Amino acid sequence: YVYTIQYGGYLLAIFGLTQPTTPSHAKTLEVGFDLETLFPHGDKLFIGSRTGMYIYDNSDPLNPMQLSLFEHARGCDPVFVYGNYAYVTLWDGSTCGAGPNQLDVIDITDLTKPVLKKSFSMENPHGLSVKGNTLLLCEGDFGFKSFDNTNPETVGSHLLDKVDIQAIDVISLPGSSNVAMV
User: Fold this and answer.
1) CA 138, 142, 143, 146 torsion-angle sign
2) Separation of alpha carbons 157 and 67, rounded Å
3) Contact 120, 106 (CB under 8 A)
4) DSSP element (H, E) containing 123
């Protein structure tokens, strides 16, 4: 299956890939408003919206069930999950809202009760990724940064490096190589 956020930002569409060259629409679910990002993690889906992060159990791929909603200030909302933590960036300066520029670290040990552990002030955080003990963070006009993520609850206080480039999104490639696409 492939999951997409539909135009308008409130529907999650599920497409079957039994015939990969001709995907078939299987189902559509109403999730919330202003959906922006979708992050699969095991049999869970983490869906970022302008006002929060939805957590869905996806063990039955055609019938995802909402487990919880973590609400936050209005802003653009990329989500990345690593281990027992979800990382959410909020940024202003767009149609998403005028929320704070921050990185939120959320404990998701209990998926039905996500808990904000720490918020770190940032300049303009956009996309992010985690590779091992390093959090990679794009800050738009303020560059591409890496942070020591050995302790997720202090990650924003441990800048490792900064590259002065326009950086909007990052995807770290799986496996043991230290490669990321920015």
Assistant:
1) negative
2) 31
3) no
4) none
**DSSP code at position 91:** B
Q: What is the separation of C-alpha 156 from the centre of its chain, rounded to a whole number of angstroms?
A: 16
| pLDDT for the residue 176 | 77
Return the structure tokens found at 18. Answer: 């039994």
Helix and strand numbers (H, E) in the chain are 0, 17
What local confidence, expressed as pLDDT, does residue 177 receive?
Answer: 83
For 120-134, the pLDDT digits (tens) are: 999 999 999 999 899
Cα-based angle 95, 100, 102 (whole degrees, multiple of 5):
115
d(CA 80, CA 158) in angstroms, rounded, equals: 18
Burial bucket for residue 111 (CB in 10 Å: 0-12, 13-18, 19+): middle
Query: Residue 97's pLDDT is what?
Result: 63
d(CA 182, CA 170): 4
Between the CA atoms of 126, 129, 130 and 134, what dihedral angle is there, to the nearest 10 degrees?
A: -50
pTM for this one?
Answer: 0.91
Dist CA 128 CA 103 (whole Å)? 10
Residue type present at position 113: K
Q: What is the pLDDT of residues 35-84, one digit of tens each?
A: 888 999 999 999 988 888 999 999 999 999 999 999 877 667 689 999 99
